[in-house]
Amino acid sequence: MPRGLTQKTMSNRQNLITRRAGPADAEGLAHLHVAVWRQTYAALAPAEALEMLDEANRLPGWQAALAPDAPKSAGGTLIAELDGRAVGFVRYGPASQPELGDAGEVKHLYVLPDHARRGIGQRLLSEAFAGLRAMGFEVAVLAVVAGNDPALGFYQAQGAERAGRF
């Protein structure tokens, strides 16, 4: 989807907009990323990891990914907003781990827990797949942390199949 264009649908009677993230979104994405990560992995990650992960830690990565001079071949990031508030995002691009082969990868897909099960994750995933196809990938992969059963269930409900462990 060209920068500046949006798609609109109704989700629980609220306006859902997905749009391509830009440099001005880096701080908001760092905040959203950390907030959802901490909630999702509170019972799965070591305490040290939860303590170390903060917005200052995530911000440089988001700034680099969203920089105006970042190569288009590195992938894309979409933000889901409800009534102007960011409630989820997806980041996709070429596979980042050798174990994933030459596939495209969904690197992050996070939705605020209080907005789960409203079709937001499904919409973001579908648009990420379209972005990966536009980049020339025929296969998409993603990694899920062991024990994150809600995520596994979501991806399997979208037609995903387990392909291995690493």
Characterise the protein shown here.
The chain has helices spanning 26-41, 47-52, 55-66, 120-134, 149-157; strands spanning 7-11, 14-20, 76-82, 85-94, 104-111, 140-141. The chain is globular. The chain contains 5 helices and 6 strands. A hairpin with a 2-residue loop joins β3 (76-82) and β4. Residues 1-13 have low confidence and may be disordered. With 166 residues, it is α+β, with helices and mostly antiparallel strands. A 6-stranded mixed sheet has the order 1-2-3-4-5-6.
Write the layout of secondary structure elements.
Layout: E1 7-11, E2 14-20, H1 26-41, H2 47-52, H3 55-66, E3 76-82, E4 85-94, E5 104-111, H4 120-134, E6 140-141, H5 149-157
Parallel strand pairs: 5-6
Antiparallel strand pairs: 1-2, 2-3, 3-4, 4-5
Helix pairs in contact: 1-3
Short recap of the structure:
The protein is built from 5 helices and 6 strands. It is of the alpha+beta class.
Feature tags:
166 residues; alpha+beta; 35% helix; disordered N terminus
Distance between the first and last residues' Cα: 33 Å
Question: Radius of gyration, rounded?
Answer: 15 Å
- Rounded mean pLDDT score: 83
How would you write the strand order of the largest sheet? 1-2-3-4-5-6
Q: Total helix count?
A: 5
Helix/strand order: EEHHHEEEHEH
Strand content: 15-25%
User: Given the helix and strand composition, which structural class is it?
Assistant: alpha+beta
Low-pLDDT ranges: 1-13
Shape from CA axes?
globular
Number of strands: 6
Instruction: Tell me the helix content.
Output: 25-40%
Which sheet architecture does the biggest sheet show?
A: 6 strands, mixed
